[in-house]
Amino acid sequence: MKKVLFFAMLVFVTGLLFSCTSDDPSDSADKGNDIGNYKTVVIGTQRWMAENLNYAVAGSKCYNNDPANCVKYGRLYDWATAMNLPSSCNENSCSGQIQAKHRGICPSGYHIPSYDDWDALVDYIGGYETAGAKLKATSGWNENGNGTDQYNFSALPGGYGGSDGSFFGVGNYGNWWSAGEYEYFSNCAYFRSMNYGSDGAYWGYNYKSYLQSVRCLQD
Predict the structure, then answer these.
(1) pTM of this prediction?
(2) Which of 172, 178, 180, 179 is nearest to 155 (CA)?
């Protein structure tokens, strides 16, 4: 059984269950899903995007609906949108539709990282207790929460949001979807998280309808 280090702090902070909607993607700086538009970095045997996905599709938003935040942090996506699956997958299990290297809305040749993909990254750089400090960017985090960016992953705290128009945590939290559904609740999926107050990079599970960041991994 997978070990989840904490239940998503978002639930405790907001007490809300968001549903997914879309804003107008035409008003943001859109880098699309062409990998040539993104920085990448090799860490161990993996090649990761070294910035968050900023592909303007229905079901995604800029933090506070401000295009400048998309430029800095990329866009925020609900899980079904990130996975390019029907919106009903936010409430129901769609495990039969998840591929081993599930492209979702990632560039060609890249995929939404699985649970094992994220673990391989974190294990390579020394484990979850210190991975956040090594992966976080050297600036952009609140309260002395910056990292060393030892591996040029440049993780930034893009925050999270919901379809009711609320946004939380920019500068404090970076949350990145995985392709893995949470096995006990069909409306939840796993994500990897870093925060300003910790050196770690933790696993959590969250409602799929929350809006969070996406990093893509080469196949």
Answers:
(1) 0.87
(2) 172
